[in-house]
Amino acid sequence: MATQNHGARGLGPAATAGLAFAVGALGAFVVERRISILLRRLERLERETEQRTALTAYQRHNFDLVMKAAADPTLLPVLNAYEEELSTDRQRQYLFANLLYTHVLQGYRVGVFSRAELYGHLRGIFQSTLMRDYWAATRHHRSSLKEGSEESEIGRMVDALINDLEEASTDEWWVVGEPPAE
Hints:
Radius of gyration: 30 Å
Order of helices and strands: HHHHHH
Structural class: mainly alpha
Mean pLDDT: 83
Shape: elongated
Number of strands: 0
Strand content: under 5%
Number of helices: 6
Distance between the termini: 73 Å
């Protein structure tokens, strides 16, 4: 008795070839889809890297401008955007406070540390009464920030932190406030 070959599970040779072609085409589609997803991820990462690089360059340029104004008392009045006139020394202190704050903020933005770690750094720098004075003097600067933006959210976090620090009944400032969840 002769055995007949009916292909895969009783399919004829043409159907088996068609099925093999379909499976191959499906496999190629899956591979193409995965490549497409990976390319989109790569493009997103490239955009994020470019944005971080641009932000870093911008911050560096800002630092250079601030340092130029701090070194030349005739330039300081240009940066006086406070509601009251400040002495040259106080303006320099506020410029330094701003640089310190933006340094910590930039560290968070480029991924040097998490949001909870940002909170810890902010808790440390806002121990200074002068930092708190700077923050109060620049409140109106933050009022124009877009509601819901990252910077406005961090500003509100600092506002709450300063409030917690001022109301704290402990000298252990490093435990004051509630860091955000990771």
